[in-house]
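debug: dumping io for the single-chain case to check the tokenizer round-trip. Nothing else runs in this session.
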Amino acid sequence: MTRTQHPLELLAPAKNADFGIEAIKHGADAVYIGGPAFGARYGAGNDIADLARLCEFAHRYRAKVFVAQNTILHDSELEAGRLQAWDLYNAGVDALIIQDMGLLELDLPPIQLHASTQTDIRNPAKAKFLEDAGFSQIVLAREMSIEEVRQVTDATTLALEYFVHGALCVAYSGQCYISHAHTGRSANRGECSQACRLPYTLVDEKGKVITENQHLLSMKDNNQTDNLRALVEAGIASFKIEGRLKDLSYVKNITAHYRTLLDEIISSDSRYQRASSGRSTFTFTPQPDKTFNRGYTDYFASGRQDDIGAFDSPAFVGELIGEVSCIGDGWFSVNTDQSFHNGDGVCFYDAHGEIAGVRINKVEGERLYPAEMPEELTEGASLFRNRDQEFERALEKDSADRRVSVTPVLSETDTGIALTLTDEDGVSAAVNLEIGQKSAWQMAQNPDAARAKLAENLGKFGNTMFVAQPAELQLSQPWFFPVSAINALRREASEKLLAARIASHPRPPRAAPAANPVPYPQDELTYLGNVFNEKARHFYEKHGVKLIEDAYEAGSEKGMVSLMITRHCLRYSFNLCPKEVKHLKPDPMTLMNGNEKLILKFDCKACEMHVIGKMKKGVKLNLGTIRSEAACG
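debug: decoded output
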């Protein structure tokens, strides 16, 4: 009896179709991307034709395309959302990533549904509810520990998705309203103003300044490199890289990095398999430290820990290279064993603790000549490199090749020869060549050399997506065949196999809702439920919710409420945690940015921090932007 192998899916981000194609070349099993509208990343929309082009390329490799349609929708947008879902399905998209449960009350196409991270899934009860509602895959909250993941795994059969790399929102996704409260730009509508990256001063309940002008709500970037095997064992099936707005070098480098790690796990454990076909080779060695990051953390994967914040700067500081050893007229040198290149970017912290960056125009031995000599650079200053020109140039070129393995079989027919190509997924294509009666065929003068040359020519797949396994020659005699005939036969068979692969792509089915679904875990929903339309209200009512408040974005006055709920705790960060220091109490604190004041309240039982504030006067939600984007689709 064959033991079932579990597919491990590497899920990469794509700003556009070309980025998605590169992610697949670099080893992604699936990509997630925005559609024409409603994609929770303003400025990352894509038209249907480009998405269809991406799907066609992805499906060659049995890779999948997921489209994020994960904003909350106003009643006036539901029909546009429904029509877009059908357009995406007809374009070949494999799954929709959604947040708004109102969509489940509409006539959607038979497309697989994934629950967005915005649905705030932190416990087994929520996961089980979404499974019964008809979801096939769910994105777990970034804050969940590996042990908490195991608990969800035990409670559901859903495919579990977990962010393994990229930027971290300090708040639980879907539970952050500070952007809308201050600017009218809703994070749940894809227009976050990133208040979490601003500098703040922290003041305690007595007015004492704890720290000044630091980016206290800015997290380091997520990196689960060291936890990947533990996440596999805990039940994660899809390993998600953040970054639908990141540049192409990030997508290439980070996708290749996690492809390499997952392949090592799969090759060492027969319980697991790739979630798509083909193998990628790279012209570079993946190095996550070379790509934009704010420093790395594995966040709460192994429980609460120190030093998860990027308090000094939300910018990319880069790799520590060494110390400035000497400063001359228009140049400086660095005490390091690293080599530099023209075009490198380096930076240092100035006297005010701010990042100052310079571009290196010329390198002469140990001397670096910047485009402009920074006035505040001093001997002994720590120097960081945040752009490695040589590495970036390697990624600007074609940097990966992905090939699907095929076995060519050449056999005889009554009046010619037939070439059958069978790939690693069992898909076959056969082509015949008529060359007349065998009585007229020529024998090869050197049989062994002829067979070797014939096998060699059958394996020349050039710039196609295929790579050959040893050819099988099912011939009764060492016949001579012209090279041109064999080449034409192979080209025709390759084209036919490619078409067959695309046509036979196993599109994932839509899961049916449970006949007797479990009720929603709560019987009341506050504004934190993000109910923004009547269809969503009806959905929750029929699943047992009795009291439903409008979404924060609905505009009704809510006064001082939690604008952000986070597992990150500034009391813990500054050694003021009542659980750690017994005489302390969890008194409120204040964050200040200019005239802006935010109250911090601490729920020690839940181990959470709430950022309290209210909506500014005159703030209104702009519906027009997203509706006009929908019209473009």
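debug: round-trip ok. DSSP finds 14 helices and 31 strands in the chain.
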